[in-house]
Amino acid sequence: MPRWRNAIVAMSLVGVLGLAGCSGGARQVAGCSAVRISSWGEDTATTGEFSRFGDDGARAVGWTGGDGTHSVRLPDGRTLWLADDPFLDRVHPPPNPLGQPYWWRDTSGGRMPAWVHNAVLVMDRTGRLRQTLLGSTFAEPGSYFPDLNADPQIWRWPMQAVVEPRSPGATEQVVRVLLWDRAVAPAPWLYGVPLATEVATLSLPDLRLTGIAKVSDQWSVPAPGQRLLFGTTAVRQGSWTYVFGSDDGPGRGAASSRAYLARIPSGRLADAAAWRYWDGGGWQPLLSHARPVLGNGGRRGVGTGYSVVRLGGTWVLLTMDAGGPAASGLTALTSYWACSPQGPWHGPDPGFDPPLPQDGEAQGNAAIYNPQAHPEFTTGDGLLVGYDVNWLGSPAAPVDTNVNRDVALYRPRFVRLRLAPPSSGPARH
């Protein structure tokens, strides 16, 4: 991760939220019931697979570490993992000296491993990561989803993806990837200002990028903190795709962002005219009419990195717990539930602290963020949930130095959650 993004975890990208409570009882919906995290356990197999892949020095070029880690299952059984700001480097045994990486880029008079703004990882149907898909520049590999206007200061971050028909009723299926456009900006926007939401289309089975369509342009909104980006999570239900988003101004302190919701007919995710936004009582075609489904701009609300899944008739939202009663911030993962995507939402539950890498210096200096559910990997051991890890540290111990020392400080980790009706707090299984 480049130095200018070191403040992401300390600011808005931590994905923290506390949700507005419900007045009265839950709306009666078939199959919907109150749930919370009842137990959890580390998924060492999935965490280990990302470590194996990142450590594989036999590859000519590929992912060494990164964040993002949204996933989508393809019709042929493969899984795509979407990575933001990945390092591309050779990993050496501890203590991981600089050694001889494949290439370097000069930065601030020093040298650091090459990085790009995004990449796509391909996992085969057995669960083994096989390939890093990248784009190219004249001199070196580049982002799979290219920077806007070939300008590295205006970039795309891939968020959630879904598989849908290329057009309504079509037999051909494609992958639609929701993208966030952002641009470099001065403090406090150290991770860039939001610009727009786009949708990329990838053909199947060859995963060729065939087009990128803008579905929501926010350049004209004068206050960056009021701009809305969609795609932190997306859920298919029947003939609709529900896409969640938020405003995400940095440095809100005790205040939080608000969550918004859109729905789009199947086969039309890349068609801006098909998007409808929840206005508090119905669906409207104008984004300016959108009203939050969660949050009031205070301690109750959302950050940019939350995840929503539908389990039977119940919708479950997973997030870092900075707005909940314990306000535990960059340590605890908690959940909320609702009977519809627009709420009302109930929670938070007591939550738990997912583990950090076994690195002595990481304790108190690293953080977890951006929890993402991966329902396609649900087993009898529970729902697979990944989360990103990053170094907070200090100017005397910058992120690139520590990631170079221990690559686990910039790699996703995974747990499995079991959800059940509320009783006691979550236990480790």
Account of the protein in words:
- By secondary structure, the chain is mainly beta.
- The protein has two helices and 25 strands.
- The chain has one domain: Glycosyl hydrolase domain, family 43 (Tachylectin-2, Chain A).
- The strands form six sheets. Strands 2, 3, 4, 5, 6 and 7 form a six-stranded antiparallel beta sheet that branches. The chain has a five-stranded mixed beta sheet with strand order 22-23-24-1-25, with helices on one face.
- The two termini are 33 Å apart.
- 49% of the residues are buried.
Task: Give a quick summary of the entry.
This protein is mainly beta and 429 residues long. The chain is built from 2 helices and 25 strands.
Cα separation of the termini: 33 Å
> Which H/E pattern describes the elements?
EHEEEEEEEEEEEEEEEEEEEEEEHEE
Q: Do you know the CATH topology?
A: Tachylectin-2, Chain A
Overall tally of structural domains = 1
Oligomer: single chain
CATH superfamily: Glycosyl hydrolase domain, family 43
Discrete helix count: 2
Q: Tell me the name of the CATH class.
A: Mainly Beta
Q: Which shape, going by the Cα principal axes?
A: globular
Structural class: mainly beta
Percent helix, as a range, is under 10%
Q: Which blocks of ≥5 consecutive residues have pLDDT under 50?
A: 1-27, 98-111
- Number of β-strand runs: 25
Rg of Cα set: 20 Å
Helices and strands in order:
Layout: E1 36-42, H1 44-55, E2 63-73, E3 79-88, E4 104-107, E5 110-115, E6 118-123, E7 129-133, E8 135-136, E9 141-142, E10 154-165, E11 173-183, E12 193-202, E13 209-217, E14 228-237, E15 240-247, E16 259-265, E17 276-278, E18 283-284, E19 307-311, E20 314-320, E21 333-338, E22 366-379, E23 382-391, H2 399-405, E24 413-420, E25 427-428
Parallel strand pairs: 1-25
Antiparallel strand pairs: 1-24, 2-3, 3-5, 3-6, 4-5, 6-7, 8-9, 10-11, 11-12, 12-13, 14-15, 15-16, 16-17, 17-18, 19-20, 20-21, 22-23, 23-24
Protein name: DUF4185 domain-containing protein
Domain DUF4185: 231-381
